[in-house]
Write a structure and sequence with these properties.
Length: 961
């Protein structure tokens, strides 16, 4: 057995071993629970009436919501949790009122799929997973305020998720006020005539269904037909992030198709500008801000209408200066104008005379060609459709549009390289100046016209080009018509001139477009929050009154979605909730004056993102049954301040993989609640920190199958499993990769404090790092040496002495205090541990016992990182109170500064002397000392001096004449 194993280390009866660590850790965890050690007080009333609490600085520290996996956690999962715990502990010890807790984002597809496979109800498996995860996290000594912990599956929690949905549903975005307002204010405008209805009829003449349709075009939460990712094999719609690049479901690897289904949406696009602009007020990594800016994708350009018979195709373009070069148009296959029916849309009954064979896709009618191509495109993911180098495909719709600036007839195609997710789902194709359009035009023999003079020697005839000339800098050519000419202008001037002309003619206008699309908010699943929505017999949507919340998720006989032939795109979801007829069809009095009426409930559920959009608010006031959060409590913890102008959580730690979706959705909800006066902060998270990932080696056999990492043998730099050589590659840690190490294993062998120290010492928190179980023992030894510096291993008695430390010890101590304080404040835990190790080693090697004053301050410095051993040593040192709220030591500047600094003296770049000088020496004093040094005088050998460069106190560079 190795000398590092606990069994060998029990010779000394009071030695710090894994067994002793387990005893210490269990006792102190029980103590913290019994005494409510980590319970952070809220203001008791109006903030002005609670001056003592308000005067104390506060910190709200959060981790991203974990999902309670059935496999439990491995050592990679708690990296961020330990980091926030260390930081929270340090903040408590520096006088802050700290709110730090952890809940569970417990709805979602994994639990539902597990239920489908095993027959176990999702609630049963999820609650069991939460119990196990709470146990694992408690063992790590995390200082969470357990009173504040929430679970999204608790009806008492999702009542308020439903309540927020109702606030969003009952709101509209007023562009004049630049904020959300109650929908009633919009109705008032229609009633008074201040705002005209779409068809001009007075509001009083509209039916209930008509009014609902009108309001639906304004509501921030609305239902509409929308192209979605439909996965028949799973029986549900998937979000884009749940679809792989090759167009298959991330879970189950089923094909995913594009389908138009009636879905709930959130009008997040109304907030695009504010979501973009308010990034400047946040303390986030620039890389994350850039991802959000790119996702929002603001671009300035123009809207242009192309007439098609009695209809029109509207495009958005950022290159309106190239309008004369538009020689064809392309619609996304999902575009509203593109249908398979010959009698609707823009698809004619027959091919126009002279249509090239290559444009028809081999179909006798336009409708047949369009229908076939739409089905083909539906089987591809957006990523696949947009891939560079992909062969461009498409079909002619049989229609021609009119280029409004030139009057030319241009053919209209559908092609999968155009998506509904950007602009209007239609483009004017300028093949001479766009690479994708160039490729498509070459494939279909379409004309090209150069309208921006190339800066190279290729000439102005695209027939001679190998690729498009794409540039934002050049002279406009070939762009003169009967009503306007752009020839000779630069791009900027041409844009301005054509935009003005389009607006004057009523065929377009300057506008801003966003890549951001409205948020698809429906899921055809059982395990999610029910919508607080019902439909009357005419199909009109009604919001439930708040008194009817929560709408509790009902029991069903079969909680799996109905699945279909995975390859059959022509199917529609059948949700689990729809099969519970008693729950779906209800008689309710909604308080609208109509009395009890028969209604049908919404049978979709909300996405798993819903509960994580606002959980920081429920942490503040989790037991409030009357309102989302008490305004005074919200203002105290997250309200705006000089250092946080938009408000929000002081520190939010989590993985960079949530850079866009979760963070964007949460920001949207926060802004709506702010606009409606429910919160004082317009942003949910002020400071964001992305921790890295703990990686592990993955070992695979010749078939590419992962083998158990713990059973792999290393032989002379090669790796073997059961007699077969295997490959090794650094990757993720996980059960499926057979390389997971659980915190339970490490805690059993070394103790939780050792695990905490090791994870924080592995490297900078924001950098990924490989796990190495063999290296854990290094931090175990640090704790053993710390223990020996205070406790005698044979007797168990405290060995410190009540004498003052000597000056070298004081210098070592205060340098450590200074360095650790700075490192802790900036989340540099690895360097803080290095400084503690240095101090502890210094004390270990020093002659005689450790001074009590030094030992106590060392224990306090260690406490945030290794709280259990710190509590035990603090108690042994004679203190009755918990170390959690002890005051962190402050460095004495007199001992932090070195007595002397080594100054290097160089002549012609070569070191000629080293001088020990005071740290505060002036440039003039240092120059005089250097020039008077005997070694320097000898090296100069009487030569004159042209220049002396002084960088006090560490460098003097002499340049001889």
């Amino acid at each position: 057995m190795s000398e590092t194993t606990p069994a060998v280390e029990t010779a000394a009866p009071h030695r710090y071993t894994a067994q002793l660590a387990a005893d210490i850790e269990g006792r102190w965890q029980d103590f913290w629970d019994e005494h409510g050690t980590y319970e952070a007080p809220n203001p008791s009333g109006d903030l002005a009436g609670d001056p003592e609490l308000v005067a104390k600085p506060k910190k709200f520290i959060m981790d991203m919501f974990p999902y309670p996996s059935g496999a439990g956690i491995h050592v990679g999962h708690p990296l961020g949790f330990i980091a926030t715990d260390v930081y929270a502990r340090h903040q408590r010890m520096t006088g802050h009122n700290v709110l730090h807790t952890l809940g569970f984002d417990a709805f979602g597809l994994p639990a539902e799929q597990y239920a489908v496979q095993t027959g176990t109800h999702p609630r049963v498996s999820t609650e069991a997973n939460i119990v196990n995860m709470r146990r694992q996290l408690r063992r790590l000594g995390l200082g969470h305020d357990q009173r504040r912990s929430v679970e999204t599956i608790d009806p008492g929690y999702y009542k308020w998720t439903q309540w927020i949905f109702l606030q969003i549903f009952n709101s509209w975005y007023d562009p004049e006020a630049d904020r959300a307002r109650p929908i009633g204010t919009l109705v008032e405008q229609f009633v008074s005539g201040a705002r005209a209805t779409p068809d001009g009829r007075p509001w009083a003449e509209l039916s209930a269904a008509d009014r609902a349709d009108v309001l639906g075009t304004y509501r921030l939460a609305y239902a509409s037909q929308a192209p979605v990712n439909w996965c028949p094999g799973l029986g549900t719609v998937l979000a884009n992030e749940e679809v792989t690049a090759d167009g298959r479901s991330e879970r189950g690897n089923f094909p995913v198709f594009k389908a138009n289904l009636r879905q709930w949406n959130m009008r997040i696009t109304a907030y695009a500008d504010r979501l973009l602009n308010d990034l400047d007020a946040l303390d986030w990594p620039e890389a994350i801000k850039l991802q959000q800016r790119n996702w929002i994708g603001r671009s300035e350009g123009a809207r242009v209408d192309f007439p098609v018979g009695d209809r029109k195709i509207t495009v958005f373009t950022t290159r309106q200066d190239t309008l004369f070069g538009a020689t064809y148009m392309v619609l996304a296959p999902e575009h509203d104008l593109v249908t398979a029916a010959e009698s609707s849309g823009i698809v004619p009954a027959v091919w126009p005379a002279g249509t090239p064979d290559g444009w028809t896709g081999g179909h006798p009618t336009p409708a047949g060609a369009v229908a076939a191509y739409r089905k083909q495109a539906a089987s591809k993911s957006d990523v696949e459709r947009q891939a560079d180098g992909k062969v461009k495909t498409g079909v002619f719709t049989g229609a021609y549009a009119v280029n409004p600036v030139s009057g030319e007839q241009v053919p209209v195609f559908i092609a999968d390289y155009v998506l509904m997710g950007y602009g209007t789902g239609a483009i004017m194709a300028v093949p001479a100046h766009d690479t994708r359009d160039f490729t498509f035009a070459r494939a279909f023999g379409l004309p090209m016209r150069c309208v921006v003079r190339p800066s190279d020697d290729r000439g102005t005839d695209p027939a001679d080009w190998d690729d498009a000339f794409a540039s934002y800098d050049g002279e406009i050519v070939n762009s003169a018509g009967a009503e306007i000419s752009l020839d000779g202008l630069g791009v900027v001037d041409a844009k301005a001139k054509i935009t003005e002309w389009l607006a004057a003619g009523g065929v377009g206008e300057g506008t801003v477009n966003f890549r951001l699309r409205d948020w698809l908010f429906s899921r055809q699943r059982y395990w999610g929050e029910p919508f607080p929505i019902v439909y009357d017999e005419d199909g009109v949507v009604h919001a439930l009154p708040e008194s009817m919340l929560p709408v509790v998720l009902p029991e069903v006989d079969d909680y799996s979605p109905r699945t279909f032939d995975p390859d059959d795109a022509d199917t529609s979801p059948e949700t689990p909730l729809s099969r519970n007829d008693d729950w779906v069809h209800v008689t309710l009095d909604l308080g609208e004056g109509a009395g009890p009426q028969r209604y049908r409930r919404e049978t979709n559920t909300m996405p798993n993102w819903a509960g994580s959009c606002w959980y920081e608010l429920r942490y503040l006031d989790p037991d409030n049954a009357e309102r989302l959060v008490d305004p005074n409590v919200e203002q105290y913890w997250t309200g705006p301040s000089e250092s946080r102008p938009a408000g929000g959580v002081d520190l939010y730690v989590g993985g960079a993989e949530h850079a866009v979706l979760h963070l964007l959705y949460a920001r949207f909800w926060s802004k709506v609640l702010f606009d409606l006066g429910h919160v004082s902060s317009r942003e949910p998270f002020h400071k964001l920190y992305n921790q890295g990932m703990i990686q592990a080696f993955v070992y695979r056999d010749s078939r590419g199958i992962a083998v158990p990492a713990a059973e792999v043998e290393e032989r002379d730099g090669t790796y073997w499993f059961e007699g077969e050589r295997v490959s090794r590659l650094l990757g993720k840690m996980g059960k499926s990769l057979k390389n997971a190490v659980t915190p339970d294993e490490i805690c059993a062998e070394y103790g939780a404090d050792t695990l905490r120290l090791y994870e924080m010492a592995m490297g900078p928190l924001d950098v990924s790092r490989p796990w190495d179980t063999r290296a854990v023992v290094g931090q175990y030894r640090l704790l053993q040496r710390l223990w020996r510096n205070v406790v005698d291993e044979e007797s168990g008695e405290v060995t410190v002495v009540d004498t003052e430390p000597d000056e070298p010890t004081l210098r070592a101590l205060h340098k450590a205090i200074d360095g650790v304080t700075q490192d802790m404040s900036n989340l540099r835990f690895n360097t803080a541990i290095a400084k503690l190790t240095e101090l502890n080693n210094y004390l270990t090697k020093a002659a005689g016992p450790v001074s009590r004053s030094v030992a106590e301050r060392l224990v306090l410095l260690v406490a945030p990182l290794a709280p259990h051993i710190a509590e035990e040593l603090w108690r042994k040192l004679g203190h009755d109170s918990t170390v959690v709220y002890a005051t962190m030591p402050v460095a004495d500047p007199a001992y932090v500064q070195d007595e002397s600094v080594t100054c290097v003296v160089q002549i012609k770049g070569k070191v000629k002397a080293r001088l020990e000088v005071p740290p505060a020496i002036s440039d003039q004093e240092l120059e005089a000392l250097a020039l008077g040094d005997a070694g320097v005088v000898a090296a100069l050998a009487g030569a004159g001096i042209r220049k002396v460069i002084v960088r006090a106190p560490k460098l003097v560079n002499i340049v001889p004449a």
